[in-house]
Specification:
By secondary structure, the protein is α/β, with parallel strands linked by helices. Helices cover 13% and strands 32% of the residues. Strand 2 and strand 3 form a beta hairpin. Helix 3 runs antiparallel to helix 4.
């Protein structure tokens, strides 16, 4: 059976700042992207992503994105807003859908049949995982999945513990797979496994507190890094806690980032700091455009969209949402909502499309990523979609 990932039909403000920017299934729930979690559970590769809100999206390693619509069997259509957990499942005869706590999250389409949309008809099999209502729930997914995700790496091959390391806890909880680690790095694995993938560089002065995952090519440049995921080719330093760096982001200076989601190609200037707890210790609400959303969370930092940039010394209030391509600088304080492609912290000026593309063209080769015509077209489509140009 072919696997299709169904994007939320109207992602809306809850998925800001990624609505219209990247597919929900390409965001990380724990170590893995939601797409990868579905592929592992169903033991299938994704044929297409069904999502009108990201038409034209292309990065290079994801399946093609096509508009939502019917799907011909044999196929499985799975919801991008559900992150499966656990081992692969076998779907028995006569099963027509997968359900989590009575909610249908995947649909099986037999040969000769056609799927036309979500439904609750037919026999259901149970699947374990987490339903996601928006971007803030990726922090809940991190808390739910990260420890087990990192522990899964214990069964694979790994290098010896790097010479000169300081280990707090069982050294068997360190998984290095081609990482370069300087002497003096502290591994605190009393709370979970630390995983360092191929090409990871860890500088002396880093304290790594598990569970923690650093993806291929990432650079951990010092500071206290704990309970976080750093996607491929991220550079990080300072104090980072319970945060998801989706990939190719840069925070190579001091400053605190906590309970935050950081998109692709984000650059956080020196001293950029997020607040992840209100002075009242109350529940954090988000402002996304005209919408105000309660997250139900006491700890929540910032949600920062792809290609956003912050100037040195930027202070981000609790529950800040920064739109894709926004550039924060100037004397004004940062508001709780920064629209896409804002030029300056006030958000009353806008980066031009050509300016946005020119910056991306300069940045991507710094991570050995080619700025191809296909990427340019994808980013151009994103700009026009978000600005109405």
């Amino acid at each position: 059976m072919q696997l299709y990932l169904l994007e939320p039909p109207s992602p809306g403000p809850a998925w800001a700042p990624f609505t219209g920017v990247r597919p929900v299934c390409e965001l990380r729930a724990g170590v893995w992207r939601i797409r990868e979690r579905w592929e592992a559970v169903l033991q299938a590769e994704t044929a297409s992503i069904l999502g009108d809100h990201v038409a034209g999206f292309q990065e290079g390693d994801e399946p093609r994105v096509r508009p939502g619509g019917s799907v011909d069997g044999p196929a499985i259509v799975a919801a991008s807003w559900f992150a499966p957990s656990g081992a692969p499942i076998e779907v028995g005869p006569g099963v027509r859908r997968l359900a989590a706590e009575s909610e249908s999250v995947a649909w099986l389409v037999a040969a000769g049949e056609q799927w036309t949309g979500p439904h609750d008809s037919g026999r259901a099999a149970t699947i374990e995982g987490l339903t996601l209502g928006g971007t803030a729930d990726l922090i809940s997914a991190l808390e739910a999945f990260l420890k087990a995700d990192c522990a899964d790496f214990l069964t694979g091959e790994r290098d010896p513990v790097p010479a000169g390391s300081i280990v707090l806890g069982d050294a068997g909880q360190i998984v290095c797979r081609g990482a370069q680690v300087e002497p003096g790095v502290v591994f605190d694995v009393r709370g979970g496994v630390v995983v360092l993938e191929e090409g990871v560089e860890v500088r002396s002065g880093s304290r790594l507190e598990g569970p923690l995952y650093a993806g291929p090519g990432s650079r951990l440049l010092g500071g206290h890094l704990r309970a976080s995921v750093f996607g491929p080719s991220c550079s990080v330093k300072g104090e980072i806690a319970a945060s998801v760096f989706v990939g190719f982001a840069n925070k190579s200076h001091d400053g605190f980032v906590g309970h935050s989601v950081i998109g692709h190609w984000v650059n956080l200037g020196a001293g950029t700091t997020t607040s992840n707890l209100k002075n009242t210790y109350g529940i954090v609400s988000l402002q996304a455009g005209e919408e105000r959303l309660s997250t139900g969370r006491q700890f929540l930092g910032s949600l920062i969209g792809d290609h956003a940039k912050t100037a040195i010394g930027t202070m981000l209030p609790t529950g800040t949402v920064v739109g894709a391509g926004a550039h924060l600088f100037g004397e004004a304080g940062v508001p709780k909502w920064v629209p896409p492609f804002a030029w300056g912290s006030r958000g009353d000026a806008q980066l031009s499309e050509e300016g946005f593309l020119r910056i991306a063209e300069r940045v991507m080769p710094r991570r050995q990523v080619a700025f191809t015509p296909e990427r340019r077209a994808s980013l151009s489509a994103t700009y026009r979609r978000l600005t109405g140009a």
